[in-house]
Amino acid sequence: MFTRLRLINFKAWRDTGDLALKPVTMLLGTNSSGKSSLIQSLLLLKQTVQSPDRTVHLNLGGDEVNDLFNFGSFDDVLNQAAASPRQFSIAFDFMRDDHERIKQGGFDCSYGQTSSRSVAVQTLKLSTDSRRFQAVRRDKGAFSILVDEESQPRMKGRDCAPERSIALSADVIARLDKDGPLAEDLSLAIRRELESISYLGPLRRKPERDYPWNKTKPGDVGSDGRAAIDALLASALLKGEEQNVVVEGVSKWLKRMKVAENLEVRQQGRSNRYELVIHRDGVACNLRDVGIGVSQVLPVLVVAYFAPRGSTIILEEPEIHLHPLAQSVLAELFVEVSRQRGVQFIVETHSEHLFRRMQTLVARQKVSTDDVALYFVERKGKSAHLRTLALDDFGRLPDWPPGFFGDALGETREQARLMFERQKKSAP
After folding, report:
1. Strand 2-10 vs strand 19-20: parallel, antiparallel, or unpaired?
2. What secondary structure letter does DSSP report for 164?
3. How many angstroms separate the CA atoms of 126 and 91, rounded?
4. Which of 43, 267, 307, 420 has the fewest Cβ atoms within 10 Å of its own Cβ atom?
5. pTM of this prediction?
């Protein structure tokens, strides 16, 4: 689980400060305020560690098949108001509950541009407990390796360059002698934390009337939910200890959202094609014939149960095309599934209904304020600013940002005023 994030000179952010990340973290705010940039920083690192080229320092994207996001060039990522040196940085802390040697750690990396206009690590810091490893860029692509508070580098040279931003090279690890295994384990733990991210974007695929399936289990659902149906089919039809877990979980939440009673997988004859059938009010309908909201929320529900335990699930606008009640129930989904499966949710949303249900869950003591973090992102001039929405134990927010969700009370007041004016004019 990610526990802290900090961005400096990254896109809309001059400096986020330390952003605490909890089991459920919600990002709210106006359009183009900088919410998505917080999410994109982690996606940028994830697609970097998954790059086939281990010498790459930062994979800005461009491969439509394998990359999560195309960031353009270095100048597109660098904050426009950044002063000299022209660098941006990404830092995070994490905790792991598995049986690995590294239980918690930190990553802090700054990036600059070389004379050939490629992106290069300037300073990389990897830390765990009281130990720290640094790779500092020198002239002509050479790096110095420092350990803990030592003032003199253990080694220098071009062969000391980091790999994929997060790992010291095999040569450096070997030359670190007894400290090498720890540095290697730390790099591996950071890699696994980034690889454990499951991302679902706001644009999801439209439903089909039937789907082909080759009887395999996908690696993830995809940023547009393209493999969500394959995940459902694998859950329903492949034998294993978690058979039907995804289907049952999805059906449970569709029912709580009052959009369906359950979901069924049907094979078409003896072919390799299957249809998804939605049952409601005694009527069975093909997924294609029900409201678009069901097909759009389906990948959200699938990833909640399909992502491996301990994953971080990042969602953008999970509420899209859902009616208000269903949007509210999403808050319950995040709280319950996070607790049951040990997954972390980082959610970017515009939904007032989702936020207010989270307030209610805090008031009902269904979730502690220690396990949920709420932030409001707003734009001030050219830079994004972050405001912590600190709920009390009764779910109340004492300091509402101006224009947070429009002005519901003001609208009601204006309606009442106009009603009384019209009644006064029509009175004899």
Report:
1. antiparallel
2. T
3. 10
4. 420
5. 0.92
